Amino acid sequence: EENTPDAGRTNLTVTTEAVAPQGYFVTLQEGPTRTMALTITREACSDGMSDRRFGMAAALFIQSPDANRLSQGCCTLDHR
Predict the structure, then answer these.
(1) What is the DSSP string of 42-64?
(2) How far is CA 50 from each of CA 18, 23, 39, rounded to the nearest angstrom?
(3) Contact 11, 30 (CB under 8 A)
(4) Interior CA angle at 27 toward 74 and 4, to 5°?
(5) 31 backbone φψ class: left, alpha, beta (φ>0; ψ -120 to 50)
(6) Is the pTM higher than 0.90?
(7) Backbone angles phi, psi at 4, to 5 degrees
(8) How far apart are CA 52 and CA 24, in angstroms?
(9) For 11-53, what is each residue's pLDDT tens digit?
(10) Among 49, 60, 55, which Cα is nearest to 12's?
C-alpha cells in the first residue's frame, strides 16, 4: 500500500522483485495506468536536513498518464 498525506492509502500490486548484494528493486502497479519502479541501494546517504547518516538511498520513479515523477531520498531498516 502507498500512503500519502494528500491521497490516503492506495492498494499497489507488486509486479517484479529482485534482490542483489548491493540493494533491492521492485516494480509496482496501481490500477491500469500507473506504474512505479523503486530502487534501494546500500550506500552512505544524508537527507541534508539532519545530522543523521543513513545506510541506504532510495529512488522512486512514478509513471502515469498525467505526469512522470522521480523522487529520491534516504532510508534505513532501523526503527528509530
Answers:
(1) EEEEE-SSSS-EEEEEEEEEEE-
(2) 31, 24, 23
(3) yes
(4) 55
(5) left
(6) no
(7) -125, 150
(8) 22
(9) 889 999 999 999 999 999 998 999 999 999 999 998 777 778 8
(10) 60
